[in-house]
TrEMBL record:
It comes from the Bacteria. Residues 4-231 form the ABC transporter domain. SMART domains: AAA (SM00382). The keyword Mitochondrion does not apply. PROSITE patterns: ABC_TRANSPORTER_1 (PS00211), ABC_TRANSPORTER_2 (PS50893). Keywords: ATP-binding, Nucleotide-binding, Transport. CDD domains: ABC_NrtD_SsuB_transporters (cd03293). The keyword Nucleotide-binding applies. This is ATP-binding cassette domain-containing protein. SUPFAM superfamilies: P-loop containing nucleoside triphosphate hydrolases (SSF52540). PANTHER family: ALIPHATIC SULFONATES IMPORT ATP-BINDING PROTEIN SSUB 2, TAURINE IMPORT ATP-BINDING PROTEIN-RELATED. It comes from Nocardioides flavescens.
Length: 257
């Protein structure tokens, strides 16, 4: 698990040019322990930019980010992308091992265990082209968990999948996460998905401010068919209705206190 602290983080693209645009504006939050946090917000509000800054792929303009493992040392990070990003010329198992630092028997056994958890152990020798999109995404998720990251970053991993497959994968993700001790930051534009998965939802509004920080206190495992889950989903959706209008309007409205 990890301790992630984001303090007064801002990001401006094309700083000092005519195309200058501020995407994240003074964002602060902390995540630690076995917590599943979703970052939710309309398209273009800076969710992927935030994740990319946390992962170190993108630089921030001002503010601070600190990330340590909860044991105190540097944190390991894993990343699950919107598309599975498997190497087509490598088998499933070789894709799993490609991201590992060592190829020891223990590491192989761990990769096999996670592949088994997503129901694909029997497909270890298949090539990505022989798998459906949902199966490929499951390999991507198993691969990220198998590096045993302290912090797992996920950017809309189910958005390319049909509703039934996405639902099945959300259930699988919850089960794997419950068994592993990981801090997860999960980006989605889908409030319904966020309520099902998260302990906490950080809502970004256009202009890159935090609009709401919502605690989701429902028992697990949660299933889409649970009445309490559906009720809370409807409630959070209703609370965020105004964001739709904000996304269309300029200038950006002030955040709700
Ligand atoms: N390298 C870049 N240079 C300039 N602008 C960028 C760059 N990367 C992203 N942006 C802009 O930053 C804004 C936020 O992009 P980002 O990809 O973080 O949004 P998002 O919330 O993830 O959206 P979506 O839900 O559509 O994935 C967008 O307006 C985008 O055009
Ligand atoms: Mg994005």
């Amino acid at each position: 698990m990890a301790v992630l602290t984001v303090t007064n983080l801002s990001k401006t693209f094309n700083l000092g040019t005519a195309r200058e645009s501020r995407i994240l504006d003074d964002i602060s939050f902390e995540v630690s322990g076995q917590t599943f946090v979703s970052i939710v917000g309309p398209s273009g509000c800076g969710k992927s930019t935030l994740l990319n800054i946390i992962s170190g792929v993108e630089e921030h303009t001002s503010g601070d980010i600190t990330l340590t493992s909860d044991a105190g040392g540097p944190a390991r990070m894993g990343y699950v992308f919107q598309d599975p990003r498997l190497l087509p010329w490598r088998s499933v198992m070789k894709n799993m091992m490609y991201v590992q630092d060592d190829q020891s028997r223990d590491t192989v056994a761990r990769a096999e265990r996670y592949l088994d958890m997503v129901g694909l152990k029997k497909n270890a020798d298949f090539y990505p082209g022989q798998l459906s999109g949902g199966m490929q995404q499951r390999v991507g998720i198993a691969r990220a968990f198998a590096v045993e990251p302290d912090l797992l970053l996920m950017d809309e991993p189910f958005s390319h999948l049909d509703a039934i497959t996405a639902r099945g994968l959300r259930e699988q993700l919850q089960d794997i996460w419950a068994q592993s001790k990981k801090t997860v930051v999960f980006v989605t534009h889908d409030v319904v998905e966020a309520v099902e998965l998260s302990d906490r939802i950080i809502v970004l509004q256009p202009g890159g401010l935090i609009y709401e920080d919502i605690t989701i206190d429902l028992p697990r495992p949660r299933r889409q068919s649970d009445k309490a889950v559906a009720t809370l989903q409807a409630d959070v959706l209703a609370r965020l209705e105004t964001l739709k209008a904000m996304a269309a309007a300029e200038p950006v409205a002030e955040p709700v206190a």
